[in-house]
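Field notebook, page 424. I keep forgetting to write these up properly, so this time I am using the form the group agreed on. The chain and the ligand, heme C, are recorded exactly as supplied. Prediction of the bound pose follows.
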Amino acid sequence: MLKHINTVAYCKTVLLGLLILSASIFSPAVYAQDANAISTDPAVIQQGEALFKANCKVCHAVNEQVVGPALAKVYERQNMDWIIAFVRNSQKVIQSGDPYAVELYNKFNKTEMTAFDFSDDEIKSIIAYVKQETENPTVAAPVATATDGATPAEGSASAGMSSEYFYIILVVLFVVLVLILIVLGLIVSVLTKFLNQQGNLDEADKEIVNSKTDLGAFMKSKAFVGFAIFIFVTLVAKTAVDGLFSVGIQQGYAPKQPIAFSHQLHAGQLEIDCNYCHTGVRISKSANIPSANICMNCHSIVKTGPQYGEVEIAKIYKAVETNTPIEWVRIHNLPDLAYFNHAQHVEVGNVECQTCHGEIQTMEVVQQHALLTMGWCIDCHRKTDVNTADNGYYDKLVELHNESSKSPMKVVNIGGLECSKCHY
Ligand code: HEC
Ligand code: HEC
Ligand code: HEC
Ligand code: HEC
Ligand code: HEC
Ligand code: HEC
């Protein structure tokens, strides 16, 4: 009899162990190890980086969509065999009817990816590099005057990550605890039955054994209910706080535009200067979006493009003929209460467009790079030196500043944190 009980208890323990193990499979760490064993050898990653930069960079970035999708976590979306087949000949995979490939192809407006005659190991090395960049994105080289001011993108990316982990850990914890409770409850009820059948217990022992410890009672117990409420409230609070903090913040916003205008083509490949189209950027508060007339300077001659043929350029002609402005969707948008001046930053401050807008010249579709929150403005004003070179206006200020301080004059020192400078 006792032997049977032991066996039952033993089975239960094993069962519990298995359950915990299966729960832990949800954890991302275990997943990553499973996925086709991607190398973390620095030499392999370096080879992959070189191949990526020479062959893929024109169309791909790891953490950003360019011509093709962001390759971050591609090794989680597809297995290595699929990736190898796709890189060797994407058209073959698409024509085979692979639903994922077909959907992706359509999503990217049927852009054909170049075929690469690479070995398995070469492609695996590229993916090893992609994985390393997914997990530890290299910080974009700080641009000119802007010291290491504006790389808010990374901060928020890691914030998004940690919140993902937070949920996974909570859910796993909860599931494991409930399972433990159920198993413990079962063991107790089996033991109770067994001891009662033994019949040789005195009254006091019987009372202990038969006291209400069954599962139903436990589920109703204060401790359990309290714990469940705690988990629930934490989840709700976390969701609410996340929601509040993201109100009005549109980092990464990349709406579809009425004409498939590409900065990657015009500002990147053709190297047209930003000022050519954004005529206000050095002389006024706003940068301006070019009118169709500026497009026509070239497109009265250039009637067809490499990707869309005549279709997209025809829309420019239609706008000019019917005299209706092209309705570009605005991407960056501060609320009315804030004042921001381009000329002050670009012309006077000598801050590069890319510091605030990201690598626009590589974007097929423009997306919002920075947070554009008050904290973002202030943070940069704290860190960035004022560009005082060749600017007589600052001579006196610099003199005054140097009397009281040894560090270079920052924007904060000229009043860059005063409310009235940014608020009407
Ligand atoms: C000419 C542009 C171009 C080049 C060069 C290019 N790709 Fe692509 N890639 C694309 C496009 C566009 C897609 C989306 C699918 C489609 O339209 O066929 C894509 C999709 C992919 C995908 C699938 C992504 C996903 O989210 O599932 C992988 C993997 C990939 N490319 C890897 C590479 C690698 C590795 C290289 C370099 C050896 C490379 N690509 C070079 C344009 C390109
Ligand atoms: C040939 C003209 C042209 C050139 C050159 C050009 N742009 Fe643009 N830009 C546009 C047009 C048209 C739009 C509106 C459509 C869009 O968002 O893609 C735009 C939109 C933008 C936006 C988003 C505006 C918004 O709605 O918030 C930014 C930021 C931007 N450009 C920055 C740049 C930078 C930086 C450069 C230089 C590296 C540059 N542009 C070069 C034509 C141009
Ligand atoms: C300084 C010259 C110049 C200006 C200004 C210019 N473009 Fe272009 N654009 C070109 C050239 C050149 C091509 C074709 C490139 C090629 O065929 O490789 C092109 C191609 C295009 C294409 C076709 C892309 C494709 O892949 O099929 C579109 C759409 C386009 N431009 C829209 C615009 C719009 C909208 C504006 C105004 C906001 C504009 N362009 C201003 C030179 C210009
Ligand atoms: C210090 C940060 C910063 C720099 C540097 C900067 N921008 Fe902007 N840009 C912004 C902000 C903030 C907005 C949103 C402005 C608003 O909503 O009033 C914006 C908006 C824009 C827009 C949308 C239209 C407009 O005027 O609001 C364009 C186009 C643009 N920027 C182009 C450029 C170009 C081109 C350069 C480089 C010559 C540049 N920006 C440099 C921060 C910057
Ligand atoms: C990449 C760094 C950077 C970011 C981001 C930035 N600024 Fe600035 N800002 C500067 C620099 C540099 C100056 C000094 C320019 C000069 O010499 O007048 C400046 C000056 C100013 C001034 C004039 C201050 C004075 O005392 O004369 C105002 C107003 C201002 N910024 C508003 C903003 C607002 C609003 C934002 C956010 C939407 C913002 N800035 C984001 C770098 C930045
Ligand atoms: C360098 C520029 C800058 C300075 C200095 C600045 N602000 Fe702001 N502030 C902004 C911008 C930009 C926004 C809009 C942020 C957004 O949409 O998230 C903003 C938003 C706000 C808001 C609206 C609430 C919100 O978060 O959207 C309040 C209130 C505010 N600021 C108060 C102040 C006060 C008080 C000071 C002085 C102690 C100050 N600001 C100084 C740029 C600035």
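OBSERVATIONS:
- The chain has 21 helices and no strands.
- The pocket of heme C (ligand 3) is lined by residues 259-262, 265-266, 270, 272, 277, 290, 294-295, 297-299, 302, 305-308, 312-313, 316 (CB under 6 Å).
FOLLOW-UP: compare against the apo run.
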